[in-house]
Amino acid sequence: MNKYRIKSHPILNVKEREKVTLYWKGEKIEGYKGEMLASTLFANGVRIFGHHHKDNSPQGIFCANGQCSQCMVIVNGLPVKSCMTPVKEGMRVEPLENYPKLPESNEIPEFGPPRIIKTGVLIIGGGPAGMSAAHELGKKGIDTIIVDDRHRLGGKLVLQTHKFFGSQQACYAGERGIDIATKLESQVKSHESIDIWTNSVAVGVYVDKKVGILKDMNEYVLVEPKTLLITTGAREKSLVFKGNTLPGVYGAGAFQTLVNRDLVRASEKIFIVGGGNVGLIAGYHALQAGIKVVGLVEALKEVGGYKVHKDKLARLGVPIYTSHTIVSANGKDSVESVTIAKIDDHFNIIGGTEKTFKCDTILVAVGLNPVDEFYKKAKSYDMNVFSAGDAEEIAEASAAIYSGRIKGAEIANRMLSLDEPVPEEWKKTGDVLKSKPGKLHKRRIPEKEEGVFPIINCVQEIPCNPCTTVCPKNCIKLDGDSIMNVPLYVNDACIGCEQCVAICPGLAITLVDYRKSDDYVVVTVPFEFEEGTINVGDKVMTVDIEGNEIEETEVIGIKNVKINNRTPLIKLKTSKENAKNIVGIKIQENIVPEDSIDTSEIPDDAIVCRCERVTAGEIRKLINDGVHDMNQIKILTRAGMGACGGKTCRPIIERMLRQAGVPENEITVSTDRPLFVEVELEKFAKGEDKNE
User: Fold this and answer.
1) What's the CATH number for 2-99+238-364?
2) DSSP notation for 363-380
3) What is the pTM of this model?
4) Distance from CA of residue 204 to its chain's centroid?
5) 111-144: per-residue pLDDT in tens?
6) What class does CATH assign to 115-234+370-433?
7) 69 with 642: CB under 8 angstroms?
8) What are phi and psi of 350, to 5 degrees?
């Protein structure tokens, strides 16, 4: 088990945990009490969780978030999602090779009406938006229930070990997501009027304006709120390509769950598809966990995420291929390599440009879809419903914090009939935090070669200001009135305190010090990696902002103090000629592709519906035959009929219809299921005729 466990981490505190013994296919394995079964299996080297009944294809994890059914296994005779099932002593786990027979029983369960619980506000989703909204409601003493399917509040914040962008005053910029989660959770817990339901799943919204919730994963209850707030976040988009369902192809969020939450080294070598912030950050997290990143591919001419995130990867030695796409995941039972190719302006593959890289994991990070089915259903039933965070609009987590704060205040004022409009400044800040990356500027490097001063390598307009607020001498100012403006070094008062270097979320500031010697310059760079990765006296290769090698230099000091928030500062002895251009240290050798594999464009045998193994060719034929009703496609192919309820394949089928030129008004979207999440039937049999 220890081979695949992360024993130490530059950001996360690896604590001792209680071991439990369980059995996989009759063989004894070890896990940690309370961790998810999928992570225990990964930690024990298990990547294939079963085989599909239709074509015997190997099945592994995909979302690790309860949104699909790829990780289904049999536990003590019953099928469960391993990513949502905590391990327990003595568990007997088998792969889902054949569906188990229903147990024979003559007992007839007693079905009674479930408990009905009334509340002022019900919040579905305990991430940054839900917690911020709950805090605002708690300050006004409004009875609120906040529901989340995890063991604690925090949402995706608990996976985010990097420092946040934005404003220090508004959304904790400069602090790490994992720490922000703890602070927001503490705020929610401080209010007596808020009831926190963790390990509880909202499963449906009904016409009588009640919400069905599986409380504590055991009791089915109905909640009747005066106001419903949906803060359910987002789910990752899927992508269709040859080999896209092989074990080893999964979402970047699933990878971060394994690595950052459960401290499992899920891979040896990964390749990333998608250059948004999710993919770029996942690559950085992989490197911090000691996992090699062999490349990142982005179909657009430039990555969609922040340039500082891209620059971090490039400086560390990760090759980034823009105007490229993935062609295929290659391997028999799991991923063994990936093939990419260059594309033209119409996103068509250019023949002869294929490159193949050895890897065991492909992270799909091609964007997010809002989890908004609860909101839409409640709206159709004319409930008093609102949404916030990614469930309302996809943006950064910092924006979700503010979005939740605004919605919480608006709901509180409305429920209490208060004439207290939400401050316009809040709304302006919220809008700015949702902003996409803006234009690029040239690096502005001071001409002088004396004293000490920062070099600011943040050249893109993004919402961020910690460097301006932390400087004790006000040496750094934004180039304008907006938080979107780039920061500039504006005076010669720098004392070399290094606080700007340590706090920058993009690791985009270095410090050059000419005071130490006439023969060399000391350059201080941030380096968030395991202690011992670099030591005093080591020779390291320095790189510029784009990751180009500059010169080999000697490490003459390492400063790792508490105030720097787990960002060690490396002091390098550099030449005067190159000092101002040094931005970081390379840790990966150049990645060389293997011999190319002969491939063509996406074949008809690529899988669209993962649950029912329905191919692109089957669906494409129906579309070409004039079938534009997704319900009919579902009946004829079973696409969308699987355990995930179409969460993964439905957006792909909609896209295929549009790509085939079908006008939107001719497309009939599929009908939602009454329940959005699977529930064991026995849970409905345990109701009590009791209201609260």
Assistant:
1) 3.50.50.60
2) EE-S-EEE--HHHHHHHH
3) 0.88
4) 25
5) 778 999 999 999 999 999 999 999 999 999 999 9
6) alpha beta
7) yes
8) -90, 115
